[in-house]
Amino acid sequence: MRYHLLGACSLLLLAQPASAASDADLAQIRADIQQMKQIYEARIQALEARLQQAEGNANAAQISAKQAQEQVAQVAATPAPAAPAGSNAFNPDISLILSGTYGNLSQDPDKYRMTGFIPGGDIGPGKRGFSLAESELGISANIDPYVRGNLNLALTPDNKISVEEAWIQTLGLDHGFTIKAGRFFSSIGYLNEQHAHTWDFVDNPLAYKAFLGTQFGQDGVQLKWLAPTETFLEVGAELGSGTEFPGAARNRNGVGSVALFAHVGGDVGVSNSWRAGLSYLHAKPHNRSYTDNNLAGSEVTNAFSGNSNLGIADFVWKWAPNGNAARTNFKLQGEYFYRREAGSLTYDTSASALTSAYASSQSGAYLQGVYQFMPHWRIGLRQDRLDSGHVDYSLNSANLSAANYAPQKTSLMLDYNPSEFSRFRLQFAQDKSRQGASDHQIFLQYITSLGAHGAHQF
Amino acid sequence: MNHYLKMLLTVALLVSTVTAHATVNVLACEPEWGALAQELGGDQVSIYTATNALQDPHQIQARPSLISRARSADLLVCTGSELEIGWLPILLRQSANAKIQPGQPGYFEATAYVQKLEVPTRLDRAEGDVHPGGNPHIQTDPRNFLPVAQAMTQRLSQLDSVHAAQYAARHQAFVARWQAAIKRWETQAAPLKGVPIVVQHKGFPYLERWLGLREVATLEPKPGVEPNSGYLTQVLTQLQGQPAKMVIRAAYNDGRSSEWLTEHAKIPNVVMPFTVGADAQSKDLFSLFDTTVQRLLGALK
Description:
The complex is a heterodimer. Chain A is built from three helices and 18 strands. Chain A has helices spanning 2-15, 23-75, 206-212; strands at 93-105, 129-132, 135-142, 147-155, 161-170, 177-185, 217-226, 232-240, 257-268, 272-283, 288-293, 299-319, 329-347, 354-374, 377-392, 408-419, 422-434, 437-451. Chain A has a 16-stranded antiparallel β-barrel. Chain A is elongated. The relative contact order of chain A is 0.11. The model of chain A is unreliable at 5-20 (pLDDT under 50). By secondary structure, chain B is α/β, with parallel strands linked by helices. Chain B folds into two domains: 22-183, Rossmann fold, CATH 3.40.50; 190-300, 3-Layer(aba) Sandwich (Rossmann fold). Chain B has helices at 2-18, 31-41, 64-71, 88-95, 145-159, 164-188, 205-211, 229-241, 256-265, 285-300, and strands at 24-28, 45-49, 75-78, 107-109, 196-199, 214-218, 246-250, 269-272. In chain B, the strands form two sheets. A four-stranded parallel beta sheet of chain B has the order 2-1-3-4, covered by helices on one side. Chain B has a four-stranded parallel beta sheet with strand order 6-5-7-8, sandwiched between helices. In chain B, 49% of the residues are buried. Chains A and B meet through helix 2, strand 7, strand 8, strand 9 and strand 10 of A and helix 1, helix 3, helix 4, helix 5 and helix 6 of B.
């Protein structure tokens, strides 16, 4: 600052016309400048002193602020190290389920049937002796900011690979909407969406086997909407190919199956939570063939064409003291199924091929409770009951009988979970699916998961 | 069908547009972050806490009630470091809420702002519940709340810029009170420096670093793995050569192994609140640390 002033003074000096100035004038000017210089210097010194003081104050303030910041600095995160580079940095989450079973069945599983019900696919109790269960490989990741992708491959013990699920789903579409497309387990009912390794028993309830061929998968699209309410409310619709039971393979444009569902849920106090739902599934199978025994007792192949309408009511109630499920918890769940089918039935498609009207209304339900009585140990009981209801074969009743039977099954299981990632289970069951042949079943099972952390689904 | 779908869409859009937000809806994964958001947000925020102090924050299911709360949340405040790995990803996916997805301003992880301890050098599930990002239980050191509070204030101001000045003022006031409290706790806790302790679960490295406690044994052989009697006896033998003053555990932990040790090693068994709301005394962040320090000092006597 001082130099600037001096500089300005010298410039002033130089600007004076030298020729016009006498010696006396010059002396006078010098004296004046000297005086000005002294005055300014004094002022500058005063300013400097003030500046120094101010700086000192600021320093003091900074020191106390520094002390405060030190506490933060002691614990605050340092910048994260550079992210790993390379083409594999975006590898998706991979999980693998390994599972195996030992089965001891008093009845021949190859002759399994559910009296009074049209079988949908492979619904038997599994193999006798040691067998490998499906090994499930899951791969999932966000695709871009808008969608997520997921693939679940089931590697079956007979060395086949089947695509259980392969879908893409919107990520935070907002307004509560979610769209899913591809192959996915339908959101109807409670258990339908859950993969086998999360089941509380070795097998699915009889009602799932009878009405959904164990589990209903859609190849199609799903739109779900979650209400902006404190009580959980979700409604959704699915349009699918309808090629899976209760549908059948078809060669047509358009929609083969429609599913609608609504779920509500919430908490009661801090220890209880629940969810209940209503679902509807419509399929329009064409030539859905199955094998059955005719009145003469010989095996024939029949085919159904028409409308299949299924309604499901489900609920699940979970209890854990203070909501802390780590030590003890209890889960009660039940589902009720009601199905009406109407159309035509072709008897013995390979020979006589007699077609006449067919109508049925059948129902079924299960109720199960699973109690974790101490850490790592759970015990569960499930009761299944189906009602073959009314079946009208019309003209085909000359060859087929509508058995009036109520298949039942009681299952008791005990499982031990050494960690979140492994489970060992023992299950006893008395299966009265076949009229007049009670099947006593004993299962030993292990289920383990490795890789990406499993989801704690409700 | 088409008709139904249209109706559904119309109703859905109507309902979702009617709900206007006067305040910032905060969904806190754990009570401590809910309490901090309350300190910083005051009347401008409305807070729902997903878990309570008597619940193990890892062992939570994506319950319907949590999904519906996530749906309407403007800001999600969680611990992170994989503490909520079992249930938070499902909540996020099922919430259909774009605002709280990772990377958005509405997604806040407290552990991102503090220096983590016990970052594993080897990732293997055979080691028990290891957290790749480091130990997530950062809330046992009050100093950790300072950088988290600063970041949370910025986040609140970003989401609700109208009230930025209020957030800044509340933050400043909180920091002043908190720093004074830390000084007080540190003075009170001076006798705890160097005190040998046993922990049930590896949940206290931040507390130990803060107060200078010395962890000499862990009752879980591996994180999240419950001890058998053989392992407990081994710990007991170890303690004969290297005695500890107390055994500590979080309020939500099953107390049996700690109680066993208390009985056999004759050392006090201290139940730490671990977070806000664990007991009548720990009703907010300040009383949480009052209780923590008092419990530890009480056991020393």
